[in-house]
């Protein structure tokens, strides 16, 4: 069998895992990964996807390599649409499952078993905002100059290194406790404002 056909087979086998890993990256708040970590994760997804796929198809791949027939010397790949759709569905399910595991902190079971104290989320920044903050949560953001901003939390950054939040219906609160409404829809507070703390308040 030509090397190009073997390489194509390997690519087709690995592709679902890379697709699943990419979808998880899009849907979940993950920690930073090296290229090697991403390759290992994609290979693991490929193994799990095909292990599940084989259970439903009794070991048949979504394609067949047809050997050449004289006088032709070219190999031919025959695709099976139903199997491809099944493989795509399994890949999508694994991707969604991986994203839910991260976003909903799937490590809770291992925490119950005392196997780890780590959560599945990126950092404590994501733990607090995803678990504790509610929709239109009232927050008070204390800045480095002693002032603070009171309002409703609408958006927050994915990474704690950025530590930016967007607050609507916002007001300045000075050192003496005076409240000064901020005109406009809201204010974006970036890390350049030297955020000291963010208080989650009762509505």
TrEMBL record:
Keywords per UniProt: Membrane, Transmembrane, Transmembrane helix
Top-level taxon of origin: Bacteria
Residues that span the membrane, as ranges: 6-27, 39-61, 81-102
The protein, known as: Uncharacterized protein
């Amino acid at each position: 069998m030509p090397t190009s056909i073997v390489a194509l087979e390997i690519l087709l086998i690995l592709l679902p895992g890379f697709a699943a890993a990419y979808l998880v990256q899009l849907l979940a708040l993950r920690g930073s990964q090296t290229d090697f970590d991403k390759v290992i994760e994609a290979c693991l997804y490929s193994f799990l996807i095909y292990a599940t796929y084989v259970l439903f198809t009794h070991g048949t791949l979504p394609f067949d390599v047809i050997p050449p027939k004289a006088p032709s010397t070219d190999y031919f790949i025959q695709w099976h649409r139903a199997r491809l759709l099944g493989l795509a569905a399994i890949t999508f399910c694994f991707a969604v499952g991986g994203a839910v595991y991260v976003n909903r902190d799937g490590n809770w079971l291992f925490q119950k078993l005392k196997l780890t104290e780590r959560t599945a989320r990126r950092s404590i920044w994501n733990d607090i905002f995803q678990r504790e903050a509610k929709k239109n949560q009232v927050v008070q953001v204390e800045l480095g100059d002693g002032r603070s901003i009171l309002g409703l939390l609408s958006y927050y950054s994915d990474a704690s290194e950025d530590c930016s939040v967007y607050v609507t219906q916002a007001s300045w609160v000075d050192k003496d406790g005076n409240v000064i409404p901020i005109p406009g829809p809201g204010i974006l507070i970036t890390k350049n404002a030297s955020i000291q703390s963010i208080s989650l308040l009762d509505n």
